[in-house]
Amino acid sequence: MTLSDEHIAKVRSLGLLGAGGSCLLYAVLALIQNRPDPMLWFVPLAIGVLAAIVIWTVCFIAGRGAAQAASDELFLQITTKAQRHAYWIALSMFALFAYPLISGMITWATGFAAMGTITGAAYPLLFVFYEWRDA
Fold it and tell me: Which range marks the domain in which residue 60 is found?
């Protein structure tokens, strides 16, 4: 069985969903538990690296033509939109977390851990959302 550009797109979506989902899960658990280390710190990293390896392997097996076809104009539009919106999400974290941090509702370490992992989750999850919505 040969892999097509559609297979690459599906694997890419699932890989980014896993990587973004693990970052978001880390942030949610940190906020719920009010601890900066709700799980092992390397779990989101390991899932992200595993996703990258799987995506790269599928692209390598599928061949150059399928890999180039998987990064077509729609892919570039979705990437650009996800990057734009992820930037604004990252900036909004400072405003959203200002009051809980200053008032002591959450600790500074927990706030920064949650803000960092939400920022890390924003692009992959937005990419998957836009890709599934526009497909």
Answer: 5-134
